[in-house]
What does this fold into?
Amino acid sequence: DIPATARYSLYDVGFYTTRPGSIPYTTGNTAIKWEATSNYNAGIDLSFFKKWLGLKLDYFYTKTTDLLLPNKDAVDPGLIYSWSNGGVLTNNGFELGVNTLGRSGNFVWHVGVNIAKYLSKVSDLPGGYIIDGSYGFTSIVQNGQEAGLIYGYKNLGVFSTDAEAGGLLNDRGIPYQGGDFHLEDTNHDRIVNELDMQVIGNPNPDFFGGLTAGITYKQFGLDALFSYSKGNDVLNVLRMKLENGAGYENQSKVLLNRWQDQGDQTNVPNTRYGDPAGNRLPSSYYIEDGSYFKLKSLSLSWQIPQRFGFIRNVQVYLTGYNLFSIQNYLGWDPEITTGRNIFSQGYDFGNNPQSRSVMIGLKIGL
It folds into this structure.
């Protein structure tokens, strides 16, 4: 996902007051080159009890050098970023699969489950870290840390009263008051700004995998495919839009529980036009658990036993996709996240979720 124009200095349309013009937004770098990747993997396959039980284990290791990364420390501080080579990304992990196959009379059944885990770490970054932005939101890549951690502010709740805010200021010099989010002032200078940003989420799952199951009886078959993910964080940007209370747009009913008077105890901040306190900055309040368990497909088939001249076999099937999902995520679909590259995953901007569909089909073998 590296832009084809990464080696060029580019300009964009901009305005100064009401006057249109051109403004630089990226610095070119003619010295950039391809990344280089080396990898190896090892695996073992075992079967027991006349193939009734199967076991598969794979380990993989990948190392990528000369990473192409957006660099915000451009020569001209007015520019957004430039592309350069630097750093090493290692990606290693394993996948374990277990499957079983059985028969009893006219019944044949199979079940398979697999679990996988990977760990992506970055090292040798020039300057020690890289900050990457996607549509105004930020990920951070640090030496020795996992790739693409979500960067923002730690949310400590909502100030119940003006006195509780205690004179804390935002980066525009506006004091926080009752009903504003309490964002952590990490350096204790009584000002909440970019210096107080920290890692608030990890889009990389603890583990993930799938489950397959099927049974056949004579000419009839039923097959299911499930997938799951555990432990991946998502920044729900759609919630930030629907709960901002800063304009005239229609909003979520969550705002019915917003702070309104001194002393109110709630985790939903006040509504103030234009959001002068910056309550809707990316914070841990909008970080959610993106774990899920999904039925990706379910198929019922019938193999017609008769042969029709040169037609060897005919199968009729009914298949449903994305039939149900078990999740605690408040958005549409935790599996649909947006990011420009591996370093900026875990953002849900309200993309269309994977649709539920049903398909009737006819398969003819000649």
